[in-house]
Amino acid sequence: MLKTNEKQLVQLAMQCKPGQPRIRPGWKVDHKGKPFILPSIGGITLNIVVGDSAFGLAGDHIEPGVSCSANSEKPFDFPNNSLQLLSCIGNEAIIVSGDAKGEKGVVTGHHGGSEHVMIDFPKKILKQLTYDDKIMIRTNGQGLTLIDYPDIKLYNLDPDLLKKMEIKQTKNKKLKVPVTTVVPAQCMGSGIGSAHTAAGDYDIMTSDPDTVKEFKLDKLKFGDFVALLDHDNSYGRSFLKGAISIGIVVHSDCLLAGHGPGVSTLMTSSQPLIEPIINANANIANLLKIGTKR
After folding, report:
1. What value does the mean pLDDT take over residues 37-56?
2. Domain check: are 90 and 217 in the same one?
3. Is 237 helix (H, G, I), strand (E, B) or coil?
4. Residue 24 sits in a domain of what CATH number?
5. End of a domain among 139, 170, 195?
6. What mean pLDDT is predicted for residues 216-237?
7. CATH number at residue 203
8. CA distance 244 to 22
9. Do 114 and 21 lie in a common domain?
10. Are 106 and 92 in contact (CB under 8 A)?
11. What are 132-142's pLDDT values in tens digits?
12. Which whole-number Å values give the CA distances from 61 to 21, 248, 271, 272, 287, in the listed order?
């Protein structure tokens, strides 16, 4: 079992509520020059959850489950910036008001730009929620470290989810991490260059059909664990040969230039210390029995 500093982590309660869908008026134009008007970020998404395909939707930047904010009117300010930084993938969320009071869900991602935290609840619960309901997230995970692997950094990862990721240690001090696919460095787009990775995401560009086919990017699902090759997320999102990062797919494919399925960072190393192992079941829905696996 991986040794961590789990007992030293600080757990904080953060309150949020579902955020209304946010769509700019007028036409958007995709990377081929085609205009479109489609559903986009935010909202209580009634029919799409982790485990569903991130491709083929009549939408752009779709966020599965419930998109939450501490203050939707000031997404980049307190307290929403604290919510984004402290919420980790796998954290427990509890509805504390309304018809669905007492129901539990799981944090599955956070999306930069919209500054939303996505939470998975059963579909029957999604239909009971309103935009006035309050949700408490038991944040836990920022500051998590691997004691025996100081050169591998962790972000946005609940320690209980880490234990379920079926990570194997090798004799040469590397970690074998199950992922559904690997992503070449040249595919990483919107969000690259961010100063840190303790919130938000960055996108896998899907505008090149041959690359999409070669790496089976169109098979990605919400909640998939993926390996980003030659990308170091230690102190921001940057290209570095030999580096590798592990992330989770948090929003759908996109039509805009420079965009595609969004990935939140979970693990990263500037050295080749993480070995991705292809496993079609490497998805948070399978590990936690949520989303399509409830």
Report:
1. 96
2. no
3. coil
4. 2.40.10.170
5. 139
6. 97
7. 2.102.30.10
8. 33
9. yes
10. yes
11. 999 999 999 99
12. 11, 15, 31, 31, 24
Question: Which single residue is written with the structure tokens 């991130």?
Answer: 54
Burial of residue 219, with CB atoms counted within 10 A of its CB: 0-12 exposed, 13-18 middle, 19 or more buried: middle
Coil vs helix vs strand at 21: coil
pLDDT digits 0-9 by tens, 99-141: 999 999 999 999 999 999 999 999 999 999 999 999 999 999 9
Task: Provide the mean pLDDT of the chain.
Answer: 96
**Residue 88 in contact with residue 108, Cβ under 8 Å?**
no
Contact 226, 19 (CB under 8 A): no
233 vs 4, 122, 165, 193, CA distance in Å? 20, 32, 19, 10
d(CA 246, CA 236): 14
Locate 221 and state its tokens: 């699902």
The pLDDT value given to residue 23? 86
User: Is the confidence at residue 229, as pLDDT, over 90?
Assistant: yes
* pTM of the predicted protein model: 0.96
113: left (phi over 0), alpha (psi -120 to 50) or beta: left
Domain boundary pick from 92, 109, 139: 139
Q: Is residue 50 part of a domain?
A: yes
The DSSP H or E segment spanning 104 is strand 104-111
